[in-house]
Amino acid sequence: MSQAQNFDVVVIGAGPAGYHAAIRAAQLGMKVACIDVALGKDGKPALGGTCLRVGCIPSKALLDSSRQFWNMGHLFDQHGIRFEKPAIDVAKMVARKDAIVKQFTGGIAALFKANKITAFHGFGQLQPGNVVKVKQHDGSEVELKGTNVILAAGSDSIELPFAKFDGEHIVDNVGALDFTAVPKRLGVIGAGVIGLELGSVWNRLGAEVTLLEGLPTFLAAADAEVSKVAAREFKKQGLDIRLGCQVSNTEVKQDGVHVHYTDATGAAQELVVDKLLVAVGRRAATSGLLAEGTGVQLDERGRIVVDAHCHTGVDGVWAVGDCVRGPMLAHKGFEEGIAVAELIAGLPGHVNFDTIPWVIYTEPEIAWVGKTEEQLKAEGIPYKAGSFPFAAVGRAVAMAEPAGFVKVLAHAETDTILGMHLVGANVSELVHEGVLAMEFKGSADDLARICHAHPSLSEAVHDAAMAVHKRAIHKAN
Ligand code: FAD
Ligand code: NAD
């Protein structure tokens, strides 16, 4: 192996966290290398991580395709639109998704080139002394020495020992984004974010979808009122969500995958499906990432231990994104990547965990920022709540999408906004009013006094903020 090549910053992983770190460091004048092992469906290197290849972007492409299809059968009639029976061409839908993935992964390669970032395609391993050994896909090895090294290895699907992925009958997100036909019966273990989003895709296209959730509570992380409305809407759409289910075994047989579980009453049950999606969470992809003696610590869940500034405690070694503590969200990784590049450059990099938005791209969409009512009660924080239903918002009714509501939670004494919880059409966009207000330490009164366009869905945010002080105009307070 030739002598190590020197860089100011070496990034392992070109997902959302890694590519943001690499590009920001390059913008700040540093010489940057970024290593990624991933290959696209065409077998060629593909930058952008889980998010661009098999996560956020392809799932939203399929969610949008399937939503158009669902609307044809379930919404258009209300608008007086008639047509022959809709049909879905799954191959074309998946090809569209693949083209979007290719466009965006190629976009990262172009951004690397424009920012003079050197990309290495292979597996990177941190050695002691901030050296990264890269086993490239062509079999060769290179060593890169970084004044700083940023670990951004991301995460992988958790596999259950009794439901091993076979890529055909039992799959994770990767398989469920690439079904070649609509399965007649789709089983999902885990009614979390992936289960709900990908379950919705195939349900909308005609699959009978059954979700087996281990916990007794549906979407426990969301505000309870939001979860309740979402559960009701999902049921109407035909999603069969069974709570408190403990899966003990699966068997692939001639007639499908047999899933053995006990239900919430403890009774033994069997579910037979054509495809089984296992979506029970993700774990940090730190296996093989660290050679002996680097000094970088892993916690009990295999995540890299970092401080509030994403520093590992080893001189010049940082870690960001899904491979460290905190929510496994692309935008959380974006912000950490940027913050670390700025800290390396001597600037004040910071990520505010209190204002990271969550969005679940189901129909209706679910979104929130800040604390739930349940958290505020548990923490003994005095609060006032104001909520407003989309059924009373002219724009939502005109769109024939009246389900859901917006809820604003504000401190009972200071009126500072502590949380915003939304379920309804386009709330993935509306939640950012709450993010912005909270980031600026705004109050419910501030939000209530801001002029919102009429008619718009954002009026639900406005009226919810007014409702905190019992002065919503369009409902009885
Ligand atoms: P990753 O995106 O996982 O990227 C890490 C990269 O590092 C990978 O390309 C990997 O190949 C590479 N790598 C790992 N180890 C090495 C090594 N040793 N050497 C070289 N390369 C290595 N989040 C959202 O915010 N919104 C969404 O809508 C959303 N939808 C999702 C849908 C699905 C189906 C899934 C699975 C996830 C979704 N997520 C979403 C989560 C999001 O994808 C992750 O939070 C995000 O990708 C994490 O970014 P990251 O850079 O930390 O890691
Ligand atoms: P998740 O944590 O959202 O949901 C997993 C669900 O599986 C939970 O409800 C959990 O109680 C349940 N579960 C765990 N073990 C089980 C078992 N043995 N039997 C039955 N149920 C079980 O995880 P996910 O859906 O796999 O998604 C992983 C992560 O990816 C998410 O946490 C999120 O951070 C990210 N993601 C985000 C988005 C988004 O932002 N829209 C979309 C998809 C994924």
- With strands numbered from the N-terminus, the spatial order across the biggest sheet is 1-2-3-4-5
Share in β-strands: 25-35%
Helix/strand/pairing class, anyone?
alpha/beta
CATH class of the largest domain: Alpha Beta
Beta-strand segment tally? 21
CATH topology of the largest domain: FAD/NAD(P)-binding domain
CATH superfamily of the largest domain: FAD/NAD(P)-binding domain
Unreliable stretches: none
Total number of distinct structural domains = 3
- What is the share of helical residues? 25-40%
Shape, principal axes of CA atoms? globular
First-residue to last-residue Cα separation: 74 Å
> What is the typical, i.e. mean, pLDDT?
97
Can you describe this structure?
This protein has 477 residues and is α/β, with parallel strands linked by helices. It has three domains: 221 residues, FAD/NAD(P)-binding domain, CATH 3.50.50; 111 residues, FAD/NAD(P)-binding domain; 111 residues, FAD/NAD-linked reductase, C-terminal dimerisation domain (Enolase-like, domain 1, 2-Layer Sandwich), CATH 3.30.390. Helix content is 31%, strand content 25%. The chain contains 13 helices and 21 strands. The strands form five sheets. Strands 1-2-3-4-5 form a five-stranded mixed β-barrel. It has a five-stranded parallel β-sheet with strand order 7-14-8-9-10. A five-stranded antiparallel β-sheet has the order 17-18-21-20-19, sandwiched between helices. Helix 1 links the parallel strand 1 and strand 2. Helix 1 runs parallel beside helix 8, helix 3 runs antiparallel to helix 4 and helix 3 crosses helix 6. The longest helix is centred in the first third of the chain and has 25 residues. The radius of gyration is 24 Å and the shape is globular. The protein binds flavin-adenine dinucleotide and nicotinamide-adenine-dinucleotide. The site of flavin-adenine dinucleotide has 34 residues, from helix 1, strand 2, helix 2, helix 3 and strand 3.
